Amino acid sequence: xxxxxxxxxxxxxxxxxxxxxxxxxxxxxxxxxxxxxxxxxxxxxxxxxxxxxxxxxxxxxxxxxxxxxxxxxxxxxxxxxxxxxxxxxxxxxxxxxxxxxxxxxxxxxxxxxxxxxxxxxxxxxxxxxxxxxxxxxxxxxxxxxxxxxxxxxxxxxxxxxxxxxxxxxxxxxxxxxxxxxxxxxxxxxxxxxxxxxxxxxxxxxxxx
Length: 208
Known about the structure:
Shape: globular
Order of helices and strands: HHHEHEHHEHHEHEHEH
Largest sheet: 6 strands, mixed
CATH architecture: 3-Layer(aba) Sandwich
């Protein structure tokens, strides 16, 4: 097999060209397509063509929120680390992960719930200009649904891409049945890397 020589700075561009070649015949709005391509670039998994679901206007709503300095809240430090924070900061936003906060750990132990659940409660303190990027914990999505229904928070977007087997599919379906704009990886696939990739795909449409 003959290997293709690519300069380091051109590797991403060539990868995107290959992805686009494999997306021939796939029709979707360009702003959604950019998100899909970034996810495929991160995972090398074309199943996301079918699995990645967007509510109407979700990308546009998220871009508007980011332009107004939205917070991004993640459920893992891995997703937090993967977000291109310099782009976010230049737009006036901030990224947060509360999972390791001592008060979150203490409250979760006291209540007998997951840290992800308590992290969502803490995120309510940030106001409503918030994007949630959930790549690991279905309990975070379940709690978000409860908080939204009770009027305690009104996020601009929920990125619901937990990976796994227990309550993963069900929690994503819960978000898709709600009224909050969403980008969801339907089914069992996802992960913190996918959550960060979606955040970056949105940010790169505004500032890079």
